[in-house]
Amino acid sequence: MAHAHKLEILRGLVKFKSNTQKIWGVLILLTIVTTVEVVLGIYKPEVLMGHIIGMKILNWIFIILTIVKAYYITWDFMHMRDETAALRRMVVWTAIFLICYLIFILLQEGGYIESVYSNGYIKRDF
Amino acid sequence: MDTTVVNTGTEGKTWGGGNEPLKASYGKMMMWFFIVSDALTFSGFLAAYGFSRFKFIGSWPIADEVFTHVPFFHGNYPMIYVAFMTFVLIMSSVTMVLAVDAGHHMNKAKVTFYMFLTIIGGLIFVGSQAWEWSTFIKGDYGAVQTKGGNILQFVDTDGKRVALRDFVVAEEKDRTAHESKNGLWFVSEGTLPTYTVDEVVAGLVANENILVRTQEINEHGEKTVLDRGASLQQLKVNGKVVVEGANLHVNEYGSPLFADFFFFITGFHGFHVFSGVVINIIIFFNVILGTYERRKSYEMVEKVGLYWHFVDLVWVFVFTFFYLV
Q1: CA A114 → CA A54, A55, B213, distances in Å?
Q2: Minimum distance, in Å, between the CA of residue A73 and any CA atom of chain B
Q3: How many CB atoms within 10 Å of residue B253?
Q4: CB-CB: which of B29, B80, B101 is closest to A20?
Q5: Contacts of B303 (CB under 8 A, 6+ apart)
Q6: CA dihedral in degrees (A57, A62, A63, A69; nearest 10)?
Q7: B199-220 pLDDT per residue, tens
Q8: CA-nearest residue of chain B to A25?
């Protein structure tokens, strides 16, 4: 099996000589991202406590960093970078579309039910 | 003379058959499609968690106060252990991808070695999760549940958490736990809490410096602490059950739904890790036996690798939504 690996990450900013080296490079990247998340999670800087679009800035940062990690796990560990564009799109966009739909429905309705509570129409848990 | 037409004259053309437009084998493609469907299952769970959290946005437990333990160390270390677990899982993903890479070079010794490390990483992770579960089930400070199902916790005047065992004195009790051997055999009862609500009330009355903390989150993002008068009032009027630890019905950290989702989602993920480890072990032995050497392809390692990375991928999201956000 002749496997041609694409050996650059961060849009060509970092280039690796071999596939093994790229794997370690991605590990370092993931470790840095996780460390940043954990440090932010422990110290919770006051600056990041403001709200943007209904959520704390800190939480937005967490979610974005998570998606960054997910991208590198899929693209480099699962070799999505080396698959054909058709397979990649089939897997990724299907998942993204359906997940966005799920999240929208459930969070929207959760917010509505919370408002029923806080407006005092219903006190009891249901 | 041939009786069947073997050649259609369209070989090599788009519709001549035998094309592989995705340039991936059947098995690998099916693994990808399984992963997509499994990803949807997990997002369903996590979105349901989000739903419940939005429903109780003003009183949801704060994860930093729940997961604060590290094995062999006493004290308050939020996040440290989960960060360690995350790192273990990412590391085992790395050894897995190294095994896949060694497989591409048909290097049996290296594949064996890296598969072995991957299995060890998986076992450490599952073990850590079991420990985390047992700590969560056992609980830490104890709390009192009100008639309305809310949780009252106890803090001192500096806002530091106080455990029930530090200020409540257990008295002689008449009530014993029901056992099926000396009662109704088809009825069972869990362990009785160490203290009764009356004992907790007596303890609170006797200790001037202890206050009640409700699960409502105030504008500073912290749980509301009642003043002394309100503390006594609240506990005496509404206190119903003493809760120690968490199970599917009650949860000393706050909303029982938090515990339900914790058990369900991390349990489902843990089960994935467990089955991943089992599959990895099977493949590991196949590698040792030389099955893939004879097959002249280590693609099987790549396929289980996909599954294993997916487990890691899910954990990254569970980590964010359970422990960080």
Answers
A1: 14, 15, 22
A2: 7
A3: 26
A4: B101
A5: B27, B28, B31
A6: 150
A7: 898 899 898 889 999 888 888 7
A8: B94
Q: Set out the domains of chain B in order of their start, with CATH numbers.
A: 26-139+258-324 (1.20.120.80), 143-171+189-244 (no CATH)
Q: Does B51 touch chain A (CB under 8 A)?
A: yes
Q: What angle do CA B172, B175, B178 make, to 5 degrees?
A: 140
Interface ipTM: 0.89
For residue B196, give the amino acid letter.
Answer: T
pLDDT at B135 > cutoff 80 = yes
Query: Which of the residues B51, B107, B260, B319 would you substitute to probe the A interface, choosing the one with the greatest number of A C-beta atoms within 10 Å?
Result: B51
Write down the pTM of the prediction.
0.88
CB contact set of B238 (below 8 Å; sequence gap of 6+): B146, B147, B148, B150, B152
CA distances for B253 relative to A29, B12, B61, B65, B284, angstroms? 34, 65, 6, 8, 42
Q: Which of the residues A73, A94, A113 would you substitute to probe the B interface, choosing the one with the greatest number of B C-beta atoms within 10 Å?
A: A73
Q: Do A87 and B24 touch (CB under 8 A)?
A: yes
Residue A42's closest CA among B70, B228, B276? B70
> In angstroms, rounded to a whole number, what is the distance separating the alpha carbons of residues B43 and B319?
13
SS3 B151: strand
Beta-carbon separation of B39 and A95 below 8 A = yes
Cα separation, B231 vs B157, in Å, equals: 12
* Partner-chain residue, chosen from A34, A90, A99, that has the shortest CB–CB distance to B43: A99
Give the model's confidence band at A1: pLDDT under 50 very low, under 70 low, under 90 confident, else very high: very low
Identity at B309, one-letter amino acid code: H
Question: What is the helix, strand, coil percentage profile of chain A, to 5?
Answer: 70, 5, 20
Kindly report, residue by residue over B40-60, the tens digit of the pLDDT.
999 999 999 999 888 888 889
User: Which one of A3, A31, A77 makes the best mutation probe of the B interface by having the most chain B beta carbons within 10 Å?
Assistant: A77
Torsion of CA B112, A16, A6, B93, to 10 degrees: 40
Q: Do B94 and A1 touch (CB under 8 A)?
A: no
What pLDDT sits at residue B4?
66
| Dihedral sign from CA coordinates of B255, B257, B260, B263 | negative
